[in-house]
Write a structure and sequence with these properties.
Blueprint (H helix, E strand, L loop, with lengths): L2 H7 L5 H4 L7 H20 L1 H17 L12 H14 L1 H14 L13 H8 L1 H10 L2 H11 L5 H8 L3 H26 L4
Length: 195
């Protein structure tokens, strides 16, 4: 393993910049973060779109690696920011997907694997209502909510990903949670009938 690859695996955030002198070093960034980027895109847009956009995310990141600025959170927020920007082009597809799911209850985009747990199956049962609630969010609030939940980013990392102030991310996340909670309050009652 090269020094650059070892540094990336050990949490070295400057790997995109270091790969300017040794382009093959960017493979370590790819190896470390591809699964997280692909998982985020899969959850947002489906398997087919995720395959294409994950590859495009790393192609764009490689081309723009000189513009990477480490804000202390590593390369993943930067990569998910690129993925989110690419996804904006596919936003109409995502909205159509959520509308179809909310209308029919059939999630034809997400492929469940053998490791899927009961919580995912429970979410599938109530997915129609969740899809409708997500559609009711403002686009900016939905984007932050999905970055933090599906992308598993902290508020700070989401702020880095979208080049927004931390306070803006916190406000949008609070607003998204409040709106989702208001729309899904009776769903919690169904899951806990003894409460």
């Amino acid at each position: 393993m090269s020094e650059l690859a070892a540094a990336v695996r050990a949490g070295g955030a400057a790997a995109p910049l270091s790969s300017l002198d040794a382009p093959e070093g960017f493979l370590a960034v790819f190896d470390l973060h591809f699964d997280a980027v692909h998982r985020y895109l899969h959850r947002r847009a489906g398997a087919d779109v995720a395959d294409d956009l994950a590859a495009e995310t790393f192609a764009v990141a490689f081309a723009r690696r000189a513009a990477f600025h480490d804000r202390g959170n590593g390369a993943l927020p930067w990569l998910l920011g690129i993925a989110t920007n690419l996804l904006r082009r596919h936003r109409r597809t995502e909205v159509r997907r959520l509308r179809a799911y909310a209308r029919t209850g059939i999630d034809a985009w997400t492929q469940l694997d053998d490791a899927t747990d009961a919580a995912r199956l429970d979410a599938r049962t109530h997915g129609v209502r969740l899809a409708g609630a997500l559609l009711a969010l403002r686009r900016q609030d939905r984007e932050i909510f999905l970055l933090c939940t599906l992308g598993e980013l902290t508020y700070s990392e989401a702020a880095d990903a979208l080049a927004l102030p931390l306070g803006t991310v916190a406000t949008r996340m609070r607003r998204a949670r409040e709106r989702l909670a208001a729309q899904l309050v009776d769903l919690a009652d169904e899951r806990n009938p003894d409460a």
